[in-house]
Automatic annotation (TrEMBL), chain A:
GO biological process: aerobic electron transport chain
Name of the molecule in the record: Cytochrome ubiquinol oxidase subunit I
Organism: Dyadobacter psychrotolerans
GO MF, any single term: metal ion binding
Top-level taxon of the source organism: Bacteria
InterPro entries: Cyt-d_ubiquinol_oxidase_su_1
Family per record: Belongs to the cytochrome ubiquinol oxidase subunit 1 family.
Residues that span the membrane, as ranges: 15-39, 59-80, 100-116, 123-149, 180-204, 216-233, 318-340, 352-372, 402-423
UniProtKB/TrEMBL annotation, chain B:
Full protein name: Cytochrome d ubiquinol oxidase subunit II
MF terms (GO), sorted A to Z: electron transfer activity; oxidoreductase activity, acting on diphenols and related substances as donors, oxygen as acceptor
A Pfam entry, by short name: Cyt_bd_oxida_II
GO biological process, one term: aerobic electron transport chain
Alphabetical list of InterPro entries matching this protein: Cyt-d_oxidase_su2 (IPR003317)
UniProt keyword list: Cell membrane, Membrane, Transmembrane, Transmembrane helix
Organism: Dyadobacter psychrotolerans
Location of this chain's protein in the cell: Cell membrane
Entry's family note: Belongs to the cytochrome ubiquinol oxidase subunit 2 family.
Transmembrane segments: 6-32, 53-76, 82-102, 114-138, 158-181, 201-220, 232-252, 259-280, 304-327
Major location (coarse): membrane
Length: 439, 337
C-alpha cells in the first residue's frame, strides 16, 4: 500500500467512524427531549426511564464522537498538510464557529447528564434541547466546510496563489445548502431506523414491552418522517451536483457518453476500460430529468472530461446505487408504518411490521456511509475541486501505512467495545427500569 | 484583531493546561495511588471531573482550530515534523476519553473494569507527556526544514532530552493541579490529607523535573535561562510564583483548603507566561535559526478578522454558560434524589 492510498484510507476510516457517532450525537438529544417532555407532562414514569436509559447510551456515543472528532481535527494536518496550508484560512470559518457550537453542546450535556433533580425541571429539559440544537449546528457547519471542497469559493486562484480570501463567502459556497440539508435529514433517518430497529427487536423478544414500545414509537416516527423527505432532498443534491460537478454525476450514474434524453442506469457493472455498463436496467430520459428537471436535456458524460480528471467510476456508481436503494427501502417501510398509524392500527402490534424494522436497523447508516463515498470518491482526483489534487496534498512523511494499521486497530476495538456496552445497557433495562415505579 | 486571536490562542492553551491538566492529573494520581486507596480515589474523581471533562477537552480543539485557520503554516509545519508525537498523543486522547466514559457508564461492573482502569490511568500519563514533548520540540530548535533523512526529519525533531524533560515536567504539573483540585472535592478528612500529600509529592516532582529541563537546555544550547531570567516580566513572574508557592505549602501544612486552587493556578499561569513571553511572537523555532512567528505567519487579514469575530461572539455565549456549569456543580447542594 503506498502512502497516498494509506492516507486516504485512514481519512476515510476516521470519517466513516466519526459520522456514525456524530449522527447519533445530533439526533438522539431530540428523541430524548420528546420522551423527557412526555415525562414532565404526563408523569408517566416509563418516559422518564426511556429518557434516562437513552441518555446513558448517548453518553457513551458522545465520548466516542468527541474523541474521534478531535482526532480528525489533527488528522487534517497530519495527513494533508499541503491542503490545510492553503485551505485552512479559507474554509476555516465554519470550523471556528463549530468550536462554539461544540462548546455549548459539551456544556449543555454536562447540565443534562448530571443535572437530574438538581435544577428546575424545565431548565433541565431545555439543556437537553440545546444539546440537540448545537449538535445539529455543528453538523451543518462541518458539512459546509466539506461543501467548500466540492465547490470552492471565497478566493481568487491566480498563478497557484490563493488571493483575496473571503471566509464568509467560502462558507456560503454553492454546495453548502444542498449538502447540509441532505446530511441533516440523513442523520435523522439513520439514527431513527437504527434505534427503532433495536427496540423492535426487544419487543419481539417479549422483554419490557411497555418501555420498548414507547421508545420504538418515538424513534420510528422521527426516522420515517425523515425517510419520506430524504429522496426529495436527494433530488435537490443531484441537480446541484449536475451543475457544479458533472464528473461526479457522470461517475455516479456510470454515464460514459454525453447525450440528450440520457437514460438513468440502475444497477449494472461498469466497465471502465470499454466505457460501458453491463447488465443494467435503463430508464430512458430519466437521468436528464434527474439532473436538469427536463427529460430532453443533455447530460455531460465522462467523455467530456479529460481522462486524468476522471473519478473512480465503479466505486462511485455502486455507492450511489446502494444509497438510493436503501433510501427506497426505507421509504417503503415508512409508508407502511404511516398506513399502520392512520388506517390499520392492528398492524402496529403485528410481528411482521416489527420484523421489518429489525431488518431495516442498519440500512440508514449503510446509506450514510455510501452517500459519503459518493461525495468524496466522486470528487477525486481533486481534494479541492478543480484547484488542488489529492496527490499534491498528502504529507511528505513516509510510512503512513503503519499509522493506518494502528488507527484501524483502534477503531475496530472501539467499535467492538461500544457494541458490547450497548448490548449490556439493553440487557440491564429489565433490572433497572422494570420495577414498579418509585418516583 | 490579530492580537485578539493570539490572546485567545494563549488563553485556550492556558485553560487546557489548567483544566485539562487537572483532568489528566486525576488519572496520573490514580497511577500513583496504592491499591487499597484506588477505589476511593476513583469515586472522588468521578464526581469531580465527570460533568466537566468534555468541556475541558474543548480548549484543545479551540487551540487547534485557531492554529489551522489563523496560522496554517505553523499548524502544518508542526503536523509534518511532529507527526509521530502528535499521533501518540491522539491515541492517548482516544484511549483516555473512551476508557473514562466506558468504565463510568458500563451497565455491569465486572472484570471489564480491569481493562478500563489501567488504560485510563496510563493514557492519562502518556497524553500530557507527549503534549509536553510537542511543546518542548516546538521551541527547541530541533525542527529541521532541510532534513534529508527520515530520522532527522521525523524522529530527532522531537526525541531529545529537552523535550522529554518538558514532557515529564508537564506530567508532574498535571498531577500537582489535580491533587490540589481534589483536596477541595472531598469531605473526608483522611482523603483530604492523602491528596495534600499527593500535592506535595507532585510539587517536588515538578521542581525536580524543572531542574532537569534547565539542565537539558544547557546541554542542548537552548537559551531557556535567558528566556526565563533575561527580562523583568520573567523576574516578576518567577518571584511571585515562588512566593505563592511558599504560601501554598504553608496552607497545606495548616490543613487549609482555602485559596489553594487559585494559588496553584497562578503558579502554572506564571510558568506559561515566562516561557512564552520572551520569545513571543515566535512559537516554532527551527534548526536553521529561522522561526515561525504568530505575527508574520498569520493568515490574510480578512480571515483573521472573521476568526477574531467568531471567537469573540463565541465567548459571549460560552463563558457565562461555562461558569454557570462549574458554579452549579461546585455548590455542594444536597442532591434531592
Ligand atoms: C440515510 C441516508 C441517505 C439516504 C436514504 C439518501 N442519501 Fe444521498 N447522501 C447521504 C445520505 C443519504 C449523505 C451521507 O448524507 C450524503 C453524503 C454527502 C452529503 O451531503 O450527504 C449523500 C450524498 C448524496 C449526493 C451527493 C451530494 C454531493 O456530492 O454534494 C446525492 C446526489 C444524493 N445523496 C442523492 C440521493 C438520492 C437521489 C437519494 C434517494 C433516495 C438519496 N440520496 C438517499
Ligand atoms: C460530515 C461530517 C461530520 C459531521 C456531520 C459531524 C458532526 C459532529 C457532531 C454533531 C459532533 C458532536 C456530537 C458528538 O460529540 O457525538 C461532532 C464532534 C466532533 N467533530 Fe465532527 N462531524 C463531521 C466531521 C468532522 C470533521 C471533518 C472534523 C474535523 C476536522 C470534525 C471534528 C469534530 C470534533 C473536534 C468533535 C468533538 C467535539 C466535542 O468534543 O464535542 N468532525 N461532529
Ligand atoms: C463524515 C462523513 C465523511 C465521510 C464518510 C468521508 C469519506 C471520505 C472518503 C471515503 C475519502 C477518501 C476518498 C478517496 O480517496 O477516494 C475521504 C477523503 C477526504 N475527506 Fe471526506 N468524508 C466525510 C466528510 C468530510 C468532511 C466534513 C471533510 C472536511 C471538512 C472531509 C475531508 C476529507 C479530506 C481532506 C479527504 C482526503 C482527500 C481526498 O481524498 O480528497 N471529509 N473522505
Amino acid at each position: 500500500m503506498d502512502d497516498i492510498i494509506a492516507a486516504r484510507s485512514q481519512m476515510a476510516l476516521s470519517l466513516g467512524f466519526h459520522i456514525v457517532f456524530s449522527c447519533i450525537g445530533m439526533v438522539m438529544p431530540f428523541f430524548m427531549a420528546v420522551s423527557h417532555f412526555y415525562w414532565l407532562k404526563t408523569n408517566n414514569v416509563v418516559y422518564k426511564n426511556v429518557t434516562k436509559a437513552w441518555s446513558k447510551g448517548v453518553a457513551i456515543f458522545f465520548a466516542t464522537g468527541a474523541v474521534s472528532g478531535t482526532v480528525l481535527s489533527f488528522e487534517l494536518g497530519l495527513l494533508w498538510p499541503e491542503f490545510m496550508k492553503h485551505a485552512g484560512p479559507i474554509f476555516g470559518m465554519p470550523f471556528s464557529l463549530e468550536g462554539t457550537a461544540f462548546f455549548i453542546e459539551a456544556i449543555a450535556l454536562g447540565f443534562f447528564l448530571y443535572g437530574w433533580d438538581r435544577f428546575n425541571k424545565w431548565f433541565h429539559w431545555f439543556t437537553g434541547v440545546i444539546v440537540g440544537v448545537s449538535g445539529l449546528a455543528s453538523g451543518i457547519l462541518v458539512v459546509a466546510a466539506n461543501a467548500w471542497m466540492n465547490s470552492p469559493a471565497g478566493f481568487d486562484f491566480v498563478d497557484g496563489k490563493y488571493l483575496n480570501v473571503d471566509p464568509i463567502a467560502a462558507m456560503f459556497n454553492d454546495a453548502w445548502f444542498s449538502q447540509a440539508l441532505h446530511m441533516t435529514v440523513a442523520a435523522f433517518v439513520a439514527t431513527g431506523f437504527a434505534v427503532a430497529g433495536v427496540h423492535a427487536l426487544m419487543i419481539l423478544k417479549g422483554q419490557n414491552i411497555l418501555f420498548h414500545t414507547k421508545s420504538f414509537t418515538i424513534a420510528a416516527i422521527f426516522g420515517c418522517v425523515a425517510a419520506l423527505l430524504q429522496p426529495l432532498s436527494g433530488d435537490i443534491s443531484a441537480k446541484d451536483v449536475a451543475k457544479r460537478q458533472p464528473a461526479k454525476l457522470a461517475a455516479m450514474e456510470a454515464h460514459f457518453h454525453t447525450e440528450k434524453s440520457a437514460s438513468l442506469i440502475v444497477g449494472g457493472i461498469p466497465d471502465e476500460k470499454n466505457k460501458r455498463v453491463d447488465y443494467a436496467v435503463k430508464l430512458p430520459g430519466f437521468l436528464s430529468f434527474l439532473a436538469h428537471g427536463d427529460f430532453k436535456s443533455e447530460v455531460k458524460g465522462l467523455d467530456s472530461i479529460p481522462e486524468e480528471n476522471h473519478p473512480p467510476v465503479a466505486i462511485t456508481h455502486y455507492a450511489f446505487q446502494i444509497m438510493v436503494g436503501m433510501g427506497m427501502l426505507m421509504m417503503l417501510v415508512s409508508v407502511l408504518y404511516f398506513t399502520a398509524l392512520w388506517k390499520k392500527k392492528h398492524w402496529l402490534t403485528s410481528r411482521w411490521l416489527l420484523k421489518l424494522f429489525v431488518t431495516a436497523t442498519p440500512l440508514g447508516f449503510i446509506a450514510v456511509e455510501a452517500g459519503w463515498t459518493v461525495t468524496e470518491v466522486g470528487r477525486q482526483p481533486w481534494i479541492i475541486n478543480g484547484i488542488m489534487r489529492t496527490a499534491d496534498a498528502v504529507t511528505p512523511m513516509p510510512g503512513i501505512v503503519y499509522s493506518f494499521y494502528i488507527f484501524s486497530g483502534v477503531y475496530i476495538s472501539l467499535a467492538i467495545i461500544v457494541i458490547f456496552m450497548l448490548y449490556r445497557q439493553i440487557k440491564m433495562v429489565g433490572k433497572l427500569y422494570d420495577l414498579p415505579a418509585k418516583k | 484583531m490579530l492580537y485578539v486571536v493570539i490572546i485567545f490562542l494563549w488563553t485556550a492553551i492556558l485553560l487546557y493546561l489548567l483544566l485539562g491538566g487537572a483532568d489528566f492529573g486525576a488519572g496520573i494520581i490514580e497511577l500513583f495511588t496504592s491499591k487499597k486507596n484506588k477505589s476511593i480515589t476513583r469515586k472522588t474523581l468521578y464526581s469531580a471531573i465527570g460533568p466537566i471533562w468534555e468541556a475541558n477537552h474543548m480548549w484543545l480543539i479551540i487551540a487547534i482550530v485557531i492554529l489551522f485557520v489563523g496560522f496554517p503554516v505553523i499548524y502544518t509545519t508542526m503536523s509534518v515534523n511532529l507527526h509521530i508525537p502528535l499521533t501518540v498523543m491522539l491515541l492517548g486522547i482516544i484511549a483516555r476519553g473512551t476508557a473514562f466514559t466506558f468504565r463510568h457508564y458500563d451497565a455491569v461492573v465486572d472484570d471489564m473494569q480491569n481493562l478500563y482502569n489501567p488504560i485510563f490511568a496510563w493514557s492519562s500519563f502518556i497524553t500530557p507527556l507527549f503534549l509536553g514533548i510537542i511543546a518542548g520540540s516546538a521551541v527547541s530548535g530541533h525542527i529541521d526544514p532541510n532534513a534529508n533523512t527520515f530520522m532527522e526529519a521525523y524522529i530527532f525533531s522531537w526525541l531529545h532530552w529537552f523535550s522529554v524533560a518538558v514532557g515529564l515536567f508537564t506530567v508532574s504539573i498535571c498531577g500537582f493541579l489535580a491533587s490540589v483540585y481534589l483536596i477541595g472535592e472531598t469531605d473526608d478528612e483522611h482523603d483530604r490529607l492523602r491528596f495534600a500529600h499527593k500535592a506535595q509529592f507532585f510539587n517536588i516532582a515538578a521542581v525536580v523535573c524543572g531542574i532537569l529541563v534547565f539542565i537539558a537546555s544547557l546541554i542542548e544550547h537552548i537559551p531557556l535561562i535567558d528566556w526565563v531570567f533575561g527580562n523583568w516580566v520573567g523576574h516578576i513572574a518567577i518571584l511571585s510564583a515562588t512566593l505563592s508557592l511558599v504560601w501554598m505549602w504553608y496552607l497545606l501544612y495548616q490543613g487549609k483548603t482555602f485559596l489553594l486552587r487559585p494559588l496553584a493556578g497562578f503558579q502554572v499561569t506564571m510558568i506559561l507566561l515566562t516561557t512564552t513571553y520572551r520569545h513571543f511572537p515566535n512559537i516554532v523555532i527551527l534548526k536553521n535559526g529561522g522561526y515561525l512567528s504568530l505575527l508574520e505567519h498569520s493568515g490574510q487579514e480578512k480571515t483573521i478578522y472573521a476568526l477574531g469575530m467568531a471567537l469573540l461572539l463565541g465567548s459571549i455565549f460560552i463563558l457565562p454558560a461555562l461558569f454557570y456549569l462549574i458554579y452549579s456543580f461546585q455548590k455542594k447542594e444536597e442532591v434531592a434524589h
